[in-house]
């Protein structure tokens, strides 16, 4: 069991090829008793983005703050607070901040997706 607040969770800079101004906070996962899944808060700062990439696991997203886009297989979707998305495994995708404020969203993945 865990009861906490996002402000108390360390922000981990994402340092990988094709990533800019991105951080993650792991809120709940196997360490907290949720076997097989991880709930993270992703923050893309101004002009931040993830790489355009594919992998076998899906993403479930819910936008908390800011504005951004989600590119999925040749189509770009505008996201804002309250938007949600399901990104299946094995599809080309990318997240990008499009405003001056942080683009912040929940991202739930299977455990193997949190590396």
From TrEMBL:
Pfam hit, one: Cupin_2
CDD domains, alphabetized: cupin_TM1459-like
Residue stretches making up the Cupin type-2 domain: 41-109
Highest taxon of the lineage: Bacteria
Name of the protein in question: Cupin domain-containing protein
Species of origin: Thermanaerosceptrum fracticalcis
Lineage: Bacteria, Bacillati, Bacillota, Clostridia, Eubacteriales
């Amino acid at each position: 069991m865990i009861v906490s607040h996002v402000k108390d969770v360390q922000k981990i800079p994402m340092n990988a090829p094709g990533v800019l101004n991105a951080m993650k906070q792991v809120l709940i996962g196997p360490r907290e008793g949720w076997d097989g899944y991880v709930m993270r808060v992703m923050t893309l700062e101004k002009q931040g983005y993830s790489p355009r990439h594919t992998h076998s696991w899906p993403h479930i997203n819910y936008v908390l703050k800011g504005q951004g886009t989600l590119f999925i297989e040749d189509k770009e979707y505008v996201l804002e607070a309250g938007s949600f998305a399901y990104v299946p495994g094995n599809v080309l995708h990318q997240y990008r901040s499009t405003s001056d404020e942080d683009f912040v969203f929940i991202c739930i993945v299977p455990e193997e997706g949190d590396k």
